[in-house]
Amino acid sequence: DVPQLNSAQDVLALLERRLASFTPELKKAAAAMLEEQTAIGVSSARQMAKLAFVKPNTMVRLAKELGFKGYDDLRGLFQEDIRRGQLGGGFEDRARWLQSLSRKGELGQLYADLANVSIKNIETTLAATNQVEMQAAARTLHQAKKRYMLGVGINHALAESFCYLADMASMPIEPIPRFGSLAIDDLAHAATDDVLIAITFKPYRREVVTAVEQARRQNLKIIGISDSPASPIVLGADHGFVVDTETPQFYTSIVATMALLETLMAFVIAEAEDDVITEIEAFHERRHRLGIYMGEKNS
Fold first, then answer.
1. More confident residue, 36 or 222
2. Which among 16, 58, 10, 54 has a CA at the least distance from the CA of 35?
């Protein structure tokens, strides 16, 4: 009986178990698959056959031997695992997969996948938290004497955006690291009444994890945002939020993180004193007065 194969790892495990029983040609094809696992999802039967030094039909025969209708069905499992980040050495494998979609004229499917996964990421992220946790984090920010926010790489823009919105509401948050500085140096004078918001995703950035560890030693409150409850910046945080970052792209998706931060900012405003509305109005009035905005006042 052919076992149920639901993932690339299932296929690889079956290949290992059956390798010794294959004919010499099938054995070469199977060995190539085991050695070049990330190539399967982005390679045609002809390309894989070239790696294995066998004929393309041998790759098809191997797929059928494993219970698939053909090589493309087998490859589909590997493509799905690459898309989910569950197979491969990293972002470069997803980049190769994206290029393979273009060569095969399947960009319409990519468009649909991106839309679906973005919506799913937001839904699962917000479903994983609740208004009580959001309100608690917002209150911690309000009660802090000084606030810091750390996001590097792809998360730097998220941190800057959140700090910009907070400043508009007269709740200043200092984005770190400052230009030419290190995050741990920027936290040197932080104290117990202060709070650090930190963001990092796999593979976790060392400077973010190190800064969070330093902040803990200085008894700062920590708001950690990451992609796993086991993340070193979420584990043990005063407020930890786990976001879904799944994407067919070659980089981590930040769509759900942006939604989470926008939600947190909404709670920050909701928990603020009444004069925050006056502060926001004054901010925009000044910009209109200085001619920063074009067109009508509400444009």
1. 222
2. 16
Query: Is domain 129-289 annotated with CATH 3.40.50.10490?
Result: yes
Distance in angstroms (rounded) separating the CA atoms of residues 151 and 293: 29
d(CA 39, CA 71): 13
**Do 253 and 118 meet the contact criterion of CB atoms below 8 Å apart?**
yes
Domain 8-105 matching CATH 1.10.150.130: the answer reads no
- Give tens-digit pLDDT for 197-249: 999 999 899 999 999 999 999 999 999 999 999 999 999 999 999 999 887 66
Please confirm whether the linkage preceding 203 is cis (ω < 30° from 0): yes
Tell me how far CA of residue 22 lies from CA of 12, 47, 73, 89, 213, in angstroms.
14, 21, 20, 28, 52
Predicted local confidence at residue 241, as pLDDT:
96
- pTM score, two decimals? 0.65
Domain boundaries, the chain: 8-105, 129-289
How far apart CA 9 and CA 225 sit, in angstroms, is 29
Cα distances from 188 to residues 100, 148, 194, 236, 270, in angstroms, run 48, 12, 12, 21, 31
Q: Does an H or E element contain 174, and which? A: strand 174-176
